[in-house]
Amino acid sequence: MILHTLNRSPTESRVYRQALAAMGPDDRLLLIEDGVQGALPSLVRHFGELEGRLFALREDLEARGLAGRCAAEVLVVDADGFVALTEEADKTVSWF
Amino acid sequence: MQHDSVETAGELLIILRHAPHGSSWLREGLDAALVAAAFGRQVTLLFCGEGVTALVAEQTAGPLGQKGTQPTLEMLAMYDIDTLLVDQQALDERGLTAADLLLPVRPLAPPQLAAALAAHPLVLNF
Amino acid sequence: MASSEIYRYLDVLGKPVALDPEGFLIHLDDWSPAVAEALAAEESRTLTDEHWEVIEVLRDFYDRFEASPAMRPLVKAVGQALGPEKGKSLHLMRLFPDSPAKVGARLAGLPKPANCL
Predict the structure, then answer these.
(1) Could you tell me the CATH number of the domain that includes residue C99?
(2) Structural domain count, chain C
(3) Which of A58, B21, C88, C105 has its CA 20 to 30 A from that of C35?
(4) What is the pTM of this model?
(5) Running DSSP on this structure, what letter comes out for residue A35?
(6) Contact across the interface for C114 and B40, Cβ inside 8 Å
(7) Distance CA B13, CA B10 (A)
(8) CATH number for C25
(9) What is the number of CB-based contacts under 8 A between chain B and chain C?
(10) Domain B6-125: which CATH class?
């Protein structure tokens, strides 16, 4: 399993499509920095069917005032959770 | 011949996602590949998104004097970097085919892209 | 890229040739066989036919790829041009002790190889 991180918003950059195309069926996607915009209910559809595999970083959501506005299907993790995800993955690939 | 699996590829996968000239990302990615290969690592390149335009034939140096990418691409074989994967969708989106490219490549559909990432112990994204 | 910092001048047949701190040419166009001889003489190296054929391989490599080769591609290029007997790092180590890719590039008037030990 690969942990993919994405730090760009789907409305601002199409790199999320490359990340999705490169993801295997068990891979996970963690939204960080500007990428957390994608966790909003109106934008989360861009990530298709990643149920249980789509994460967003709490610190970056909070910093943008978005912590309470996340779509229900997004799993919010804090920095420790990020570390745990990294440890569970064979490797991490960042998309930026 | 082009059907050997991506699992046999190499130790390091370098993903190139940027076009020539507009930024230094492509050159930095190629430099990283050459350094790794010079130290004996088995390197695979994956051209994704805009990165596929790095392979288009008949390109030249940039109008502002940016160094061309073609000589570096042609040099890859001297560093034993022979596995060049491309994102088939990115070619399709641009109306390109493998025949439009400088070097022989292996186009990959999305499931194979994921397999290529999974198959390499180390993946660097440029 | 060649360094642009002129550190000293080497006299080659009465003409000053600008060098960087590591002895690479500042202006690659300054190169001539006489420059290679003068650079080699400074280090008490004598250039034989076997050296010259490798220098030619190096210059050809740069013409084709616009870069100086690291050791592995140099070995490969020499093997392709001069045959498998010479395409060996031992042969190149004997001709250009210490660092064949670096010393060879310097004598051949190429920039310092980027990815060199």
Answers:
(1) 1.10.10.370
(2) 2
(3) C88
(4) 0.90
(5) G
(6) no
(7) 7
(8) 3.30.1420
(9) 42
(10) alpha beta
